[in-house]
């Protein structure tokens, strides 16, 4: 628990075109391992962007600058207590084996609005991809977050540098 410092962008690592729901995420993360889950107490993301661009809240949070215990999700080990995590459905090719930026135009628009809203609400935070988080050894979110942030006009001070 601490001051909100980061917004971390993730992908679900599901094949291009596959529908994924909030309930899928909760089940994948919180079901016991013997039931195909990770056995976590909480899911890894606060919000999710569906393929059609709609945004759904997975883990409730308030809009203040403190990450309270009830707001912590398991998105990136080591920084969860000072981060908010958003995920988009997709992130791998149709075979499910290779990382690929599968964001639809609708997802890109929603993610842009989401990031800009978060920066207006929390002007001190930095935005990063899960693959930039300390200790992360993943392709997630399957696109170059700093490059995308620059392309949508985000100031350098809000772009995490690993």
Low-confidence stretches: none
Q: How far is the first residue's CA from the last residue's CA?
A: 22 Å
Strand content: 15-25%
Q: How many DSSP E strands?
A: 9
Helical residue percent band = 10-25%
Output the number of helix runs.
3
Radius of gyration over alpha carbons?
A: 15 Å
Descriptive report:
This protein is of the alpha/beta class. It is 20% helix and 19% strand. It is built from 3 helices and 9 strands; from the N terminus they run E-E-E-H-E-E-E-E-E-H-E-H. A 5-stranded mixed sheet has the order 5-4-7-2-9, covered by helices on one side. It has a two-stranded antiparallel ribbon with strand order 1-6. A hairpin with a 5-residue loop joins strand 4 (47-49) and strand 5. The longest helix has 17 residues, at 105-121. The radius of gyration is 15 Å and the shape is globular.
């Amino acid at each position: 628990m601490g001051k909100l410092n980061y917004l971390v962008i993730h992908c679900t690592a599901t094949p291009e075109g596959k529908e994924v729901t909030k309930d899928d995420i909760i089940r994948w993360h919180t079901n016991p391992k013997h039931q195909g889950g990770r056995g976590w107490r909480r899911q890894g993301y606060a919000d999710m962007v569906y393929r059609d661009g709609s945004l759904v809240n997975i883990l409730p949070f308030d809009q203040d600058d403190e990450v309270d215990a009830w707001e912590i999700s398991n998105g990136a080990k080591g920084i969860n207590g000072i981060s908010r995590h958003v995920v988009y459905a997709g992130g791998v090719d149709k075979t499910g084996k290779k990382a690929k930026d599968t964001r639809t135009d609708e997802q890109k628009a929603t993610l842009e609005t989401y990031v800009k809203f978060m920066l207006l609400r929390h002007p001190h935070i930095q935005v990063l991809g899960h693959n930039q988080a300390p200790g992360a050894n993943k392709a997630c979110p399957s696109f170059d977050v700093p490059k995308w942030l620059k392309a949508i006009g985000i100031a350098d001070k809000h772009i995490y540098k690993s």
